[in-house]
From TrEMBL:
Similarity remark: Belongs to the membrane-bound acyltransferase family.
InterPro entries reported in the protein's UniProt record: Ac/AlaTfrase_AlgI/DltB, AlgI, MB_O-acyltransferase, MBOAT_fam
GO biological process: alginic acid biosynthetic process
Bilayer topology: Multi-pass membrane protein
Cellular localisation: Cell membrane
Coiled coil: none
GO cellular component: plasma membrane
Transmembrane segments: 6-22, 29-61, 73-90, 102-127, 147-165, 306-329, 350-370, 395-414, 426-445
Pfam families: MBOAT
Swiss-Prot/TrEMBL keywords: Acyltransferase, Cell membrane, Membrane, Transferase, Transmembrane, Transmembrane helix
A molecular function (GO) term: acyltransferase activity
Protein name: Acyltransferase
Record's keyword annotation contains ATP-binding: no
Length: 458
């Protein structure tokens, strides 16, 4: 069920109206039921599998809850990682074994290997919960209904943000009636998210897909347009999803954390990862980088920890050599940045505009591997950036306006508007949310149909 579809508009409208008409004590259960429907719309079979994994995780928490019990933590981590490995990584693991000359066929792979929707996101969310319980990071007593809602909450279920138990569960009690500020802000986010997805990401994806499907066939101009274009597409696609998710959550009385803060205006690679996919980068920091030793053991060990963290972050995105290279690329960039900053102080005097351009272009190089179907295709695309032959790609009319729209929405994320909703007349206060949502979905339905979000594949 895509956020940019008529089906979701109908689904969410019913959920919203029924949710706020119910007695306060029934709302949590209704949201859990709605989340079942949302996920089950894709696959009832994998919904059953998902619920089983969630219940097993809660069972470990409920029956074996002992702070500092390393054995309990080890077993539940093995369960979650094994579930992720079988569905997401086994075919790739078999391929790697074959590439290095070892046959491996415990589970036969025939036809298409189906990846359960949101498995990477909900696995990380459950792991963080179990680790936080082990560390004693929060004292909140979690009921089964609390845990189900924490994992299954449909606005953020498919592609995040990755929630933390101590943030979500301690604020799980929503207002007894709709909040005007939440409603107006949430509607604004939904509208912005649909604009990013439908008017920007989906419009440029057509010719980007064309170039990436045949790297080397087109001339350098087409490759450079796609080089910059995919950076814009993935930002608008993913941050657009996050905006819609946060908007829907606010309309239901829940506040989700931001996941993007104008990442392409970053003046360093560290700053980029503080602004891009924030919930993932902080997860990797807290549950991987710091346990590996963080920056506590000298420069060499710190850089190794950074590299391993980003390498595994790349693998989290997808079971392909291209994602591993993408993660390794960012690990190298972060390590190199630490190295030169410690030795050459003049880098600190470089104007922010110049350093932001530098960072953006190196990030774009990484996006080539992220987008390409194979390493060979990625290298072919990069060589096409400097090709003097090949076909000329005719860009659709209005492409320049699309790029300008991206700059506007990116700037609004960097310097957000803060409208004074309370100063509006009462009619406008309630009309704006309704109009904004329906305008957004009208745009979604009339411009490009229903294109899936990029991060749905993870």
């Amino acid at each position: 069920m895509l956020f940019n579809s008529l089906v979701f508009l109908i689904f969410f409208s019913f959920v919203y109206l029924i949710y706020w008409s119910l007695n306060h004590k029934w709302r949590r259960g209704f949201l859990i039921l709605a989340s079942f429907v949302f996920y089950g719309y894709w696959s009832v079979l994998f919904l059953a599998h998902f619920v089983l994994i969630v219940v097993l995780n809660y069972g470990f928490y409920y029956f074996f809850e002992r702070r500092g019990d390393r054995k309990r933590l080890t077993w539940i981590l093995i369960l979650n990682l094994a579930n992720l490995f079988v569905f997401k990584y086994y075919p790739f693991f078999k391929r790697v074994m074959s590439d290095i000359g070892f046959g491996f066929d415990v589970l036969p792979v025939s036809g298409e290997w189906i990846l359960p929707l949101a498995i990477s996101f909900y696995t990380f969310q459950m792991i963080s919960f179990q680790v936080d319980v082990h560390r004693g990071d929060f004292e909140y007593k979690v009921s089964l209904s609390d845990f189900l809602l924490f994992i299954l909450f449909f606005p953020q279920l498919i592609a995040g943000p990755i929630l933390r138990a101590k943030d979500f569960l301690t604020r799980i009690h929503v207002p007894k009636r709709p909040n005007l500020l939440f409603s107006t802000t949430g509607s604004w986010w939904i509208l912005i998210g649909l604009i990013k997805k439908v008017l920007i990401a989906d419009q440029i994806s057509v010719w980007i897909d064309t170039v990436y499907s045949s790297p080397g066939m087109y001339n350098a101009e087409a490759h450079w347009a796609s080089f910059y274009g995919f950076a814009i597409q993935i930002y608008c696609d993913f941050s657009g999803y996050t905006d819609i998710a946060r908007g829907c959550a606010l309309l239901l009385g829940y506040k989700l954390p931001p996941n993007f803060l104008a990442p392409y205006f970053s003046g360093s690679f560290r700053e980029f990862w503080r602004r891009w996919h924030i919930s993932l980068s902080t997860w990797l920091r807290d549950y991987l980088y710091i346990p590996l030793g963080g920056n506590r053991s000298g420069n060499l060990r710190t850089n190794i920890n950074l590299f391993l963290t980003m390498l595994l972050g790349g693998l989290w995105h997808g079971a392909n050599y291209t994602f591993i290279i993408w993660g390794a690329w960012h690990g190298l960039l972060l390590g190199f940045e630490r190295l030169i900053e410690g030795r050459f102080s003049f880098f600190k005097r470089v104007p922010k505009f110049v350093s932001a351009l530098f960072v953006f272009h190196f990030v774009c190089i990484g996006w080539v591997f992220f987008r390409a179907d194979s390493v060979v295709d990625a290298l072919g695309f990069i060589s096409g950036l400097f090709s003097f032959s090949g076909e000329k790609l005719k860009l659709p009319w209005g492409t320049n306006w699309i790029f300008l729209s991206f700059l506007i929405v990116h700037w609004l994320e960097y310097r957000p508007l803060k409208p004074k909703w309370e100063n509006l007349k009462i009619v406008l206060r309630y009309a704006i949310p309704v109009v904004a949502i329906f305008v957004g979905f009208w745009i979604a339905g009339s411009v490009s149909g229903e294109r899936s979000f990029i991060y749905f594949q993870f």
